[in-house]
Amino acid sequence: MSQGELPKELTREELYERLWSMPTTKVAAELGISDVALAKRCKKLNVPKPTPGYWAKVAAGQKPEKEPLPPEPQPIKYEPLDAPVPNRLLLPDDDQDLHPVAVELRVALRSATPDTEQRVKAEDKIIPRVAVSKALIDRAAKALHVILTAVEARGIPLRKSRSKYEAAYFEKGCDRSNLTIEEEVTPREPTVQEKRRASWQWQKFGEPSGKLTFTINPEHHAARSEKKWTENEKLPLEEILSKVVLGICQHYLKLEKEHAEAAERNRKAAEEYEIQQQAERKRQHAATLEATAYTRSDDLLKAAEWWRLYRVTMEFINECEQRWRGNPAGELTTEQQAWLTWARENAKAMSPLETGYPDAAKDGPFDATAVPFGGPYPAKRDFPRPPTMPKIPPPVQQSSYSSGYVPEPKQQYPFWLKYQRR
């Protein structure tokens, strides 16, 4: 069992009974995990552990009260991403509690200092980017409350940024979406005192318009994925909030569809690859059987040729011995006897009978249909080719565009056997 892994059969009730029947260190040692891993599993399963002084009280003879096992936490049920969104999402009343992130936003904006455009900005890793005037702080916080409540109800949480230079973002799976709330700034007429300054100073001054702009910008996507809505007479804030929530949900709904399509493509590709591999294995199986049958047939011809060479060589050696014994003395010299012994040993090595060939069970025909798929395959000897039996190269295939080419017929038997002198 690896560290940090509990037995699968250990339930919450069993874990609770063990924790309150012996110290935590003994429970961890019994399960083969560390104290930290046990604490993480207890937190995940919502199983209470005894306090540090619990076992000291038990050792002193006291009977401290056990903390009861709370009910098993139920999984959160989210609305589907394609659930309908009302055309208008109303802002909450002033006495209604806001989302914790909206409360943090309101606190951060109220303590911020206005810039040259008379806007305060919230730049924190736990809240989205917001830039509004002091007058629209509550309005922006309520709008954020509406968006977060509707989006998180569909399983898209607002994540805290890991960098202090970035704002919070929505995240589902591995895709992020940034939300920005800004108050539009309109140019204004410079005052008399501002006109006395350099033009590059007062011409850049503006004033808040009182209209909020909402922008959602998914990361790792093209710029065309960005969507923006600004308040106006025809598009009130309540309708914009509905469009923002719908835009975020549609983005992740589209991603889910793309991921499902990609998974389906990968599944089909894996199936096609497996079919190709199966066909390749079948081809290799058939090729191995064919090669085995061909090798056995080829071994028969090579063994016959080695046997012919053996007999011819032995005839030559015997003829040499007869010639040497035809001298007046009729006896062989020491050198002649040594040569005859050496020659007969070399000739004997040519005989296929010395290697146990043929073996009717291993060197003859076999039933290819009885060979299991993938082996084991019948054995084959693969005799070395005799020097008098050159390997026949396959005929060179000419292009079909060459005129007058007629492929040579396949040889039915080796040409060396046809023209071999007897």
Largest sheet: 7 strands, mixed
Give unreliable regions as ranges: 1-8
The structural domain count equals: 3
Beta-strand percentage range: 5-15%
Return the structural class. alpha+beta
Number of strands: 7
User: What is the mean predicted local confidence, pLDDT?
Assistant: 84
Helicity level: 40-55%
The helix-strand sequence is HHHHHEEHEEEHHEEHHH
Task: Measure the end-to-end span.
Answer: 76 Å
Walk me through what this model shows.
With 422 residues, this protein is of the alpha+beta class. Helix content is 42%, strand content 10%. It has helices spanning 12-19, 24-31, 35-45, 54-59, 100-110, 137-152, 192-195, 199-202, 237-325, 334-350, 415-418; strands at 120-122, 129-132, 158-159, 169-172, 175-187, 206-218, 227-230. Strand 4 and strand 5 form a beta hairpin. Helix 5 (100-110) packs antiparallel against helix 6 (137-152) and helix 6 (137-152) packs across helix 9 (237-325). The longest helix has 89 residues, at 237-325. The model is unreliable at 1-8 (pLDDT under 50).
